[in-house]
Design brief:
Shape: globular
Strand order of the largest sheet: 1-2
Order of helices and strands: HHHHHHHHHHEEHHHHHHH
Number of helices: 17
CATH class of the largest domain: Mainly Alpha
CATH architecture of the largest domain: Up-down Bundle
CATH topology of the largest domain: Growth Hormone, Chain: A
Strand content: under 5%
Largest sheet: 2 strands, antiparallel
CATH superfamily of the largest domain: MFS general substrate transporter like domains
Oligomer: single chain
Radius of gyration: 22 Å
Helix content: over 70%
């Protein structure tokens, strides 16, 4: 329970810093491995002879044969990332349900952290590579409990609560900047396995730090029946699924370009960008660190903009914020389509175009992502906020799937058509969101 005596103190509970350490390690490891993984799959795993050093990969290749051309490593790599995202849809719901009803948030979070520690360690060895895939999926499915735990540290009216989430956001962005940069450099300089091993080492340190702060971590008792927690009862969960379920595909379509950054964009950038820096070609995985750095700046810009807007015109509506910046986001893939049209010859695309792309995309996402999360939480019944957060995570998972589906066609479509399709999908999602607006005027879901 939050301590009322500390409500007006500027000091944060000790538990926040242990959660921040774990979440920073999670983001460091996740985005480091994700930046390396798609390139590793395309260049090593799927180019290795069948029956070679990766046990189980031949079975995975046959599983993907219905969707991707098995002779094209790039298509297989993109489809694999999409398959991981597809698997997370049921497991994330299951992870939230099990944590709410049986494990509790503290044990649920620790379960996720352990799986996330195992994943990069398994990826660091060829013989255990295939085992890392389910560990990665399960880890992300349970680690979402960390988000809810931050809220459990404070009362709803505690003025320190917004500052706590800002601290978490800064830790996450710093981890995403440092992780892919460092691990990507290790992978490029010494070999892929060193990059995965470094991510696993940091993840292990974060998991141990979380365990060291165990007594400081909040863990509300799980609700095993509707009487103890109306928001976590099966009937309430069905009610929660109503209008929130409609939001998931519409927002996923708007998120698709942002999620493509963690998928085929890395392969595309490796092939098309002029990545020379002072006579040295920087790794393609650093594009993810570049995105994190730009995102850090655009988040500050978005906060300043909306503070000024609120002072002059009053608090903006969630829907208006999402729609207006969703329109801005449409321009991001158009930037790369224009860059591709301007460089149809052998000349590589200047990173100036890349900076423009990341700036426009990240400025849009700096508003859309936190505001859409707030919308999910507001719509949820009182005791189902964790499930609402899990449902929001499905937006990115569905966007990952769509990005993977589009990504596998890059070799045959070409760059211009590839990026224009992103704009079209985002435009459809934005139009559907505008059309569906009247369904959400009443506030919370009916109970």
């Amino acid at each position: 329970m939050p301590d009322p005596a500390l409500r007006h103190s500027k000091t944060h509970p000790a538990g926040l810093y242990f959660i921040a350490a774990a979440q920073g390690a999670w983001y460091f490891s996740r985005y480091s491995t994700q930046a390396i993984l798609v390139l590793y799959l395309a260049h090593v795993v799927y180019t290795a002879p069948q029956g070679g050093a990766f046990p189980g990969v031949d079975t995975l290749r046959r599983l993907l044969s219905w969707e991707a051309e098995t002779s094209n490593p790039q298509a297989l790599a993109s489809t694999t990332i999409g398959l991981l995202a597809l698997c997370m849809i049921p497991t994330q719901i299951l992870g939230g349900f099990l944590s709410d009803r049986f494990l509790g948030r503290r044990y649920g979070a620790m379960t996720g952290l352990i799986f996330l520690t195992l994943a990069p360690i398994f990826w660091a060895f060829d013989t255990s590579f295939i085992l890392a895939l389910p560990c990665f999926v399960l880890g992300l499915s349970f680690a979402v409990n960390l988000f809810a735990q931050v809220g459990d540290l404070y009362a709803d009216d505690d003025p320190r609560r917004p500052d706590a989430y800002q601290i978490m956001s800064l830790v996450q962005e710093a981890a995403v900047i440092i992780g892919p940069t460092f691990c990507g450099w290790l992978a490029a300089r010494y070999g892929w396995h060193y990059g995965f091993a470094a991510a696993g080492s940091v993840m292990l340190a974060g998991t141990l730090a979380y365990g060291m702060g165990w007594r400081h971590l909040p863990s509300p008792a799980p609700s095993r029946d509707g009487a103890r927690g109306r928001g976590s009862s099966p009937l309430a969960l069905l009610r929660l699924g109503g209008r929130i379920a409609l939001l998931i595909p519409m927002l996923a379509m708007i998120f698709i370009c942002n999620e493509q950054i963690y998928d085929t964009y890395l392969i595309w950038g490796e092939q098309h960008y002029n990545r020379h820096l002072f006579g040295w070609v920087f790794p393609a995985s650093w594009l993810m660190s570049l995105d994190a750095g730009v995102s850090f700046i655009t988040q500050i810009m978005a906060i300043a903009f909306w503070r000024q807007y609120t002072k002059r015109r009053g608090a903006p509506g969630e829907w208006g914020q999402i729609v207006s910046f969703g329109g801005l986001g449409l321009l991001a893939p158009l930037v790369l389509a224009c860059a591709s049209a301007d460089h149809t010859g052998p000349e590589q695309i200047s990173m100036v175009w890349g900076l423009m792309f990341h700036f426009v995309n990240d400025l849009a996402m700096a508003t859309i992502m936190p505001i859409s999360l707030a919308l999910f939480i507001r719509l949820a019944p009182g005791n189902a906020k964790s499930m609402a957060a899990a449902a929001y995570a499905l937006v990115a998972r569905l966007a990952d799937i769509m990005a993977g589906q589009i990504g596998q066609n890059l070799p045959s479509w070409g760059s211009i058509r590839f990026w224009l399709l992103h704009t079209a999908v985002m435009g459809i999602g934005l139009a559907l969101l505008i059309i569906a607006r009247p369904l959400y005027k009443t506030g919370k879901l009916p109970t």
